[in-house]
Amino acid sequence: MATTTAGPAADLTPEQRQSVRLTLRSPRHLKTEVLAGLVVALALIPEAIAFSIIAGVDPRLGLFASFTMAVTTAVLGGRPAMVSAATGAVALVIAPLVASHGLDHFIAAVILAGVFQVVLALIGAARLMRFIPRSVMVGFVNALAILIFSSQIPELIGVPWAVYPLTALGLAIVFLFPRLTGVVPAPLVAIVVITAIVVPMGMDVPSVGDKGELPESLPSLFFPDVPLDLETFRIIAPFALTMALVGLLESLMTAKLVDDITDTRSNKTRESWAQGVANIVTGFFGGMGGCAMIGQTMINVRASGARTRISTFLAGVFLLLLVVALGEVVAVIPMAALVAIMIFVSWATFDWHSVRPSTLSRMPVPETLVMLSTVAVTVWTHNLALGVIVGVLVAMVAFARRVAHFVTVDRALERRDDGRETAVYTVHGELFFASSNDLYTMFDYAGDPQRVVIDFSDSHLWDASTVAALDSVTDKYAHYGKDVEIVGLNQASRRMRVRLGGMLNTEH
């Protein structure tokens, strides 16, 4: 890291802008981080309460989880400025366990999920991120934007008429205020202005306090009262593993998105085990667990301009101070202000370039199909992990179909030195389960001369399906009493054929 003192934003590279040390030396940058943390904390409160209700637990569990997750990942995580807290994805996964076995089993599952995440990080699960195509990432982002927007719709239905002009005012502030100045984050201005209008006038509109009771004390250590035996493990392990996988996938996808926005790279393996440690810590403080939050992360990074761990750490600290020490003040903040902020976040998150007619007309149809399938499944199920998995599967199928058509076989008749006529087949392309299925049909078994040579110098055998297809070809020629010579196999292909050849097509 360079030792340059922090100056104007334009004087620092994106990597330098993530430096805690340089930020602490720059009052302007530090102010940005502090205010961003405050805005995120205010936005986290109603979200954490809502997710607690989804999970079927006391709102304090969601609020305490948001504090411990944010603080722990700020210190240990691999992605600066990313916000982790209690999330809807985790709430949906864990809710059935709360209903069937109660709070103690629920907390035990959160701790076990953290252990699973640490183990997954150590065995390199984060490296699987490179197999997620760009079209899936675009679908993930767009689906997330739609979900953020749709989650605000209930806040605008069946409410007093005053909510609508207040929300419109909030939208005007968050969209237009940055054009005037970037000294103060626009979301914070929207919260202050709308609260300053509502409270003195005594307007009867929904507020943060209507979402649930705020805690009045600090979180304390909690040890779940469950038997430490295999039966308990059998009950909680499926929920814990699902939570671990969903949480990791959502966190790593969010980290990749922030990487793109900030033009920086992050350590995904470090982020993976940090998420696990955060969930373990959260469980032992009686929290509901969580993962990265895309909405609050976008508020922090895109709307507020934060770039360091300071904003994430302060988001957790401010949240705890606000709900414990200033709960009465926080409770009067109108939900209209937070709804306006989240609508802005959904607009800023959506990749509008991806749906322009000019983009769609140039994009290959399979790529568009992958993006749309990711969006459709995610929005339909409200499960970001499931949407990404389906998108990757569709991309794999599309890729396999595309590559399967790249395999060609050329045939030529030659007369060798011994005077015998020989059919020489040259195979071009990568042979695997999709492309090798048609290999059997590309030879003239009956019409070929007595001697046949198949040249794989321009090809590669990738799997057992290809070896089986090649065995079928040689067996068919043997049925006609013709000699087949396989040439040109590279070392890896030859080893695979020696190991598996003649074993896959045996009739029992």
Automatic annotation (TrEMBL):
The keyword Transcription does not apply. It is found in: Membrane. PROSITE patterns: STAS. This is SulP family inorganic anion transporter. Residues 424-508 form the STAS domain. It is a multi-pass membrane protein. Keywords: Membrane, Transmembrane, Transmembrane helix. It comes from Kocuria aegyptia.
